[in-house]
Amino acid sequence: AQKVTQAQTEISVVEKEDVTLDCVYETRDTTYYLFWYKQPPSGELVFLIRRNSFDEQNEISGRYSWNFQKSTSSFNFTITASQVVDSAVYFCALSENKFYFGSGTKLNVKP
Amino acid sequence: DTGVSQNPRHKITKRGQNVTFRCDPISEHNRLYWYRQTLGQGPEFLTYFQNEAQLEKSRLLSDRFSAERPKGSFSTLEIQRTEQGDSAMYLCASRATGPAVEKLFFGSGTQLSVL
To answer: Is the separation of the CB atoms in A66 and A77 below 8 Å?
Structure first.
C-alpha cells in the first residue's frame, strides 16, 4: 500500500536560517510520482514540484531545493535563507492515479 | 484559466441535515478529485472521476456520501444525514491526463461545520 510519512509535525526557525523538511514514502509501484505542496494560512494548496521515480536528479529553484533518494525512499525539501512568507504547512504526496498525502509539516519562520 | 472553483466556501448545518457542495474544475481537465482535510492532517482521498465516470471511491466513505459529475464538467458532493464527525474542509482538485501524472490544481475548499 502507498504511504507517505512526514515525521516532523512542526518546525520553528528564525528568518535566514536554512530548513529541511523530511518526506519518506512507501510504494510497491516501480513508476510513481512525488510532489510537494504548500498550504499557506489562506488555505489553498499550491503546487511546488513534481518528480518521477526515474529522475533522481536533485533540483534547485531559487531558494528551494529537493533531494530525491530512491534507495532510502525519501524526497526531502530544503528552503535556504528562510523568510517569514515561507511560513505554511508543507505536504509531500505520492501518486499513481490517486494522490496520497502526508500529514504535513508546519513551518514557522520568525523574524 | 480561472482555476478550480468551489461553492459554498463555508457551510454550517445541523446534525441530520443533508448538504451538497459544488466544484467547477479547470475546463480542460478530465480528472476531478474530492478530498477531505481535518485540522492538522493532510488531505484524505474520497473519490475521483475521469470525465463523468466515477473510477474509485474510498472504502472509508460511508453510504451517506455520494458524488456525481453528470456531464463530465462540474461535480457535486452530497452528504446525507450529516454527523458531527463530518465536520472538515472538503477539497476539490482537478488535473489533466497524459503520459505523466500531472499536478493537481486545488480549489479553496468548502468548510463544513456540523452542529
So the answer is: yes
Residue A25, C-beta contacts closer than 8 angstroms, at least 6 positions apart? A2, A3, A4, A5, A34, A73, A74, A75, A92, A94
Assign residue A85 a region: left if phi > 0, alpha if psi is -120 to 50, beta otherwise? alpha
Note the pLDDT of residue A40: 93
B84 DSSP 8-state letter: G
Residue B1 has pLDDT above 60, yes or no: no
**CB of A41 less than 8 A from some CB of B:** no
A6: CB partners within 8 A, 6+ apart: A21, A22, A23, A24, A90, A91, A92, A102, A103, A104, A105, B42
**pLDDT tens digit sequence for B24-80:** 999 989 999 999 999 999 999 999 999 999 999 998 788 999 999 998 899 999 999
Instruction: Report CA Rg, chain A.
Output: 13
C-alpha cell at B108: 479553496
Which residues of chain A make contact with B101, given a CB cutoff of 8 A? 32-33, 50, 52, 95-97
Q: Is the pLDDT of residue A87 over 80?
A: yes
Contact between chains at B43 and A102 (C-beta distance less than 8 A): no
Tens digit of each residue's pLDDT (9 = 90 or more) over B85-104: 999 999 999 998 887 778 99
Q: Which residue has the cell 463544513?
A: B112
Question: What's the CA gap between B17 and B80, in Å, rounded?
Answer: 7
Closest to B93 (Cα-Cα) out of B80, B79, B75? B75
